[in-house]
């Protein structure tokens, strides 16, 4: 077996059956290469989050082979999952704190990342003082501060309003273009999947039913979302999604 | 232009104070009516009018021993509460560590809560004597359950599964998870337990005064003496003072709760 570069995720023939007998995934083959952003789209309950939890090591596969070649894996949850008793800055510092990174080093890095997500002025605020979009930016900052090789996103923008969602998509685009990490991103939104990713994997009933390559390099301008070419790719994904469901 | 509602409404504390004063006036009126109109002069000693009861506040022969006794009861309640806090928190933290520790310890917490204190007083008397230590033990027994149950609930149920996943992904140790996630998440629940336990510790101290009268007398002991002597003015004053004391202890912990947790949750 050849050694993989950091930031590689590979699932080969992976199936997952839970203790109650529910089969969530069957024969999943999936690869995320370093520096590649892959999106999973599919209806609720098709197994997207299970793939993410497998990749994070939170659960183990029932069958098949799972390889994660990454020194650091970060996870962005559907809910920002901020600790209410910590300020934005201390939430971003949390992972460094748990890994015993020296205080000065983790603070400098946390401030840099907060600046990168546009929240330099909100560092001292508690989560309750932040809007939904700002909370999600803190959550993204917390994931990126660890300088991950692999980042996993579990439908992070699902609960946000459309304007905030679009601005966060643009932000994530920019961050992804600057940082070299592999990413697996879950979403229900076809437009979000096409705008963000290099490849869109269409899921249905525990299987990957189709794959669509997205041709544009990163970073992508926000206006791309309103072009005819974009609509054509999104239309193709939507049609495949309908077939898979 | 500012909103008319904002400019006309009273501050929250003033509204609350007004309702408290209104309620007290209402009670005073009903009390006066019962005392002066309903009761015959021969039976008026059962409920003397409020003016007569308030008159005892200026009587040093009654008030000096009453305040000294209240001071002793306060000390017993505070020591009992402090012990209940330490033991209750440690108990809850141990139970939160594993299911089998919970299975071992939880029944004893329930037993402490459900056994009537009357059934335990002979044992407490034999083991701890009939003075102040026994009163403290009663205060601890009565106050401890809300601390155990609320802290345990906070430690186990307050952090979301996703927060636990976050700590698992960062390979946090059990200690880090307890100190940086479970304990801070449990603080609002702990304060709920503290507020209840604070009130209960006062009740426990007074109950202890009733049963264990060796040594210097507490307010519960005086209540008993006043009852035996049918000294209704002093009895009602003592009841009023203990009620005020209970409310004060509850309010202190409620204010502490708002100060600590309010910053996080905007209460």
Tell me about this structure.
The complex is a heterodimer of chains A (245) and B (267). Chain A has 245 residues and is of the alpha/beta class. Chain A folds into two domains: 1-72 and 149-245, Rossmann fold (3-Layer(aba) Sandwich), CATH 3.40.50.300; 81-147, no CATH class. Helices cover 36% and strands 24% of the residues of chain A. Chain A is built from seven helices and nine strands, in the order E-E-E-H-E-E-H-H-H-E-H-E-H-E-E-H. Chain A has helices at 48-56, 88-98, 103-116, 132-144, 162-178, 190-196, 228-244; strands spanning 8-17, 23-32, 37-41, 63-69, 73-76, 150-154, 182-187, 199-204, 207-213. Chain A is globular, with a radius of gyration of 18 Å. The mean pLDDT of chain A is 89. Chain B is mostly helical and 267 residues long. Chain B has one domain (69-261): MetI-like fold. Chain B has eleven helices and no strands. Chain B has helices spanning 4-8, 12-38, 50-55, 60-97, 99-114, 117-128, 132-157, 161-169, 174-211, 219-229, 232-265. The relative contact order of chain B is 0.12. Classes of the chains: A alpha/beta (245), B mainly alpha (267). At the A-B interface, strand 5 and helix 2 of A face helix 8, helix 9 and helix 11 of B. Chain B: InterPro entries: MetI-like (IPR000515), MetI-like_sf (IPR035906). Chain B: It is a multi-pass membrane protein. Chain B: One of its GO terms (cellular component) is plasma membrane.
Throw out a few tags for this protein.
heterodimer, A: 245 residues, Rossmann fold, 2 domains, 3-stranded antiparallel beta sheet, B: 267 residues, mainly alpha, MetI-like fold, 11 helices, 0% strand, disordered N terminus, membrane (chain B), transmembrane helix (chain B), transport (chain B)
